[in-house]
Amino acid sequence: MSTTACPDWDVVKRFLELYWAEAVPTGQLARRLEEVRAELAHYGTYRQTTEEIAYGAKLAWRNNTRCIGRLHWRSLEVRDLRHLVSADEVFEACVAHIRLATNGGKIKPMISVFAPCQVGFVGPRIWNSQLIRYAGFRQSDGSILGDPKNEELTCAIQELGWAPTTEGPFTVLPLVVQMPGECPRVFELPRDAVHEVAIRHPTYDWFIDLKLKWHALPAVSDMGLEIGGVTYPAAPFNGWYMNTEIAARNLSDTYRYNVLPMIARRMGLKMKSDRGLWKDRAIVELNVAILHSFADSGVTMVDHHTAARQFITHIEREEREGRVTQADWSWIVPPLSGSCTPVFHRTYQNQELTPRFFYQPAAWRGDSRGKCGCPFHQ
């Protein structure tokens, strides 16, 4: 993991001006700017207040061009966990995040912010792309049992010594936490912390026989958070699922679980030609099953039509505040019935603003390597 340079003063200043203008317009900006300038001169970085981090994290959500759920950006619950210094503490905090955010099924938008990078010092990293992910096990015939997206991570964790008691299509991966200068640590998630939903269909009784399921909480954990020039490399965050994320992507993509042929066969659809639209009919019923199952289990989920309308409401609210909503059209338009939603029939500016979430290199590759003696660092 590489270290970070001193925060750029222009970036720092712009964030503080924005924060004080939107969150605390009390006329004390000049004093705070002088405090931060002095810290930068002395330490090469500065310590943000809990309030600055809380608002900065909300702004990062508001600025996320790939998120359709930004109407709720102000509701994000922010946990300031910069004081945690051990892998055990970070892991326990992640488990607490899962429990608190799952909230018995009534999902709460939440972010847990761990220690930042500083000059000459790297922050902690969480290897997993989400706090809850399913393993992908390479089979002798070359196929993948489980989620192919996580096959490389699964191998990496196994090289660290993880030996699952069973290998199945929905085996929950352990969490890997790596603290600065230390070997990565593998932690099994408590089973009672992982809320999963069995997928059933309101009409097709055979659907339950497919033994499909998915976890309730989509908590992204490998993206970095940048606020006012300060980088937080471990800041897991979540909203709630939109049905198409699971039904039209995770379970349907040919390079993921690829379940549409299985569903089409059970529906008795002819699959020799795409002209019969068997994929379309199967994917609709899978989305029906996902929405039904989450609702029946009392787990928060939004359908893609509602989410699209809510995003238009968000744009209108932002316009009233004098702000332009940046968006990546290819991510905002749902992967099912896109033209039936209002977000399809618009164009968007797609400029990355700060504060922001950003993608980081996989923690087990490249310059994340150190010399601590584990299989990845030799």
SSE inventory with pairings:
Blueprint: H1 9-22, H2 29-43, H3 50-62, E1 77-80, H4 87-102, E2 110-113, E3 125-126, E4 136-138, E5 144-146, H5 151-159, E6 175-178, E7 185-187, E8 196-198, E9 213-215, E10 219-220, E11 224-227, E12 230-232, E13 237-238, E14 241-242, H6 243-250, H7 260-267, H8 278-296, E15 301-302, H9 304-320, H10 329-332, E16 356-358
Parallel strand pairs: 1-2, 14-15
Antiparallel strand pairs: 2-13, 3-6, 4-5, 6-7, 8-9, 10-13, 11-12, 11-16
Helix pairs in contact: 1-2, 6-8, 7-8
Description:
This protein is an alpha+beta fold. It has ten helices and 16 strands. The chain has helices at residues 9-22, 29-43, 50-62, 87-102, 151-159, 243-250, 260-267, 278-296, 304-320, 329-332; strands at residues 77-80, 110-113, 125-126, 136-138, 144-146, 175-178, 185-187, 196-198, 213-215, 219-220, 224-227, 230-232, 237-238, 241-242, 301-302, 356-358. The strands form six sheets. A four-stranded mixed sheet has the order 1-2-13-10, with helices on both faces. Strands 3-6-7 form a three-stranded antiparallel sheet, covered by helices on one side. Helix 7 packs across helix 8. The longest helix has 19 residues, at 278-296. The mean pLDDT is 94.
In short:
This protein has about 375 residues and is α+β, with helices and mostly antiparallel strands. The chain has a 4-stranded mixed beta sheet, sandwiched between helices. A 3-stranded antiparallel beta sheet has the order 3-6-7, covered by helices on one side.
